[in-house]
Structure formats: structure tokens, C-alpha cells
Please model this.
Amino acid sequence: MHYAHRRPGGVGARPGRLFSRFYDIISKTKGRRKLKVKDDSMLKETIGNDLELRLLELRHADELYNLIDQNREHLRRWMPWVDNTKESGDTKGFIKASLKRFADNLGFDAGIWFRDRIIGVIGYHKHDWENRTARLGYWLGREGQGMGAMTRAAHRMTQWAFEDYRMHKVEIACASKNHKSRAIPKRLGFVEEGSIRDAEWLYDHFVDHIVYGLLEDEYRAAEPFKKTTGE
Model:
């Protein structure tokens, strides 16, 4: 059985800043917003000096592939898909799937750009509308480290999850020994909820995951978000 996605206080709340700027609500099905692009502008959001989030489009496939290819050793330590990304056609397939997920109102993937060069990706895994939960995943090339880019990106994606998608919870799962990845939810006030043993097969071994979560009321009270939520 599927239940309507409803925010406390009703479904009729205005769309958030992100979607109202780029999209029109054309229908509501079981309380979920159906979005239509207003014009040919891609989603593009400034998140810091020379830093932008942009919705991944097919024309980005070559640039994304080159970033992965140049960072294979760096990414392979924690990303299980690196060896299967052998050509730009593979990144094109990833972007196609991501755009379908976006069209189906199940989340999206955004590239992180620094000075007009892509340095990483952040995205929502398939939204769990029944439980109003969004799950974030992300990765960054070596050259993008050390400037706070991923913290800023995760901050903005967390905002959108609560303010635009009206989620009740955002989760982030990180490999237990990936301390740089785990630092992101910690900085943003997420709560460490527990560990999942042998959660992921990584080429030749299993890795444990640490799960972090942030609830809607915690989001509104968390120091990193107080300014942006008006408190």
C-alpha cells in the first residue's frame, strides 16, 4: 500500500525556492509535486565563491567521464562503480538514469563545478516517499578537496530535501573508514544512528557503513541551518 506524501499542515504549501525558480507545478499526484521545466535553463545554483551545483545533463557526459578517468585510483578506494566506467557512454547512461529519476520526481544528481570545471557529484538516491526520507550520496575528485566544496554542496542538498521536497528525514551512509566522507554529516549536525556490517562489496572485500540521519525538527534547530531556515 502506498500513502500520500503529505507535509504536516497540508499539501498545499508553496513550492520551495529552487523549484519555483526553474519549474512549474503541473499536477499533484498523491500529494507529490509534478514539475515542468519553465525554459531551457539548466538547474544552476551558486553555493560559494566560484562553486556551483548544476543538474547533470547529457552534454556533461564527456566532462564527467574525464574527471572519473583522471581520478580512478583516488575514487576506487571507496566507489564500487569505477572499474565499470570504461567510456563516456557509461557516464551518459548514468546521466540518462538520473534524468529519468528527476522526471519521475524521485530525486536528481548534480555536478559540483569550481571555476567552471566539474570536480564532483552529489545526488539523492531514489526518494522514499512513503516514509518521506531522502538519502544523499557524493564523491569528489582529488583536486576538489580541501576547499569545503562537499560540505557546501551537502548543506544545500539537505536544505532542498526539507524545504522543497518536504522530507521528514535525510540520511547519509558512509564507509566506516572513509573519514573524510563521514566528516560531512558531522559538520552539518547529523546524528550518527548506527552501523551496518558488511554493507557493501568493494571489489575484493566488504566494508561496513555508518549511517547518519537528520530529522526535520533537528534540521530547523541545527546551527549550520539556522540562518537559512530563518531562526
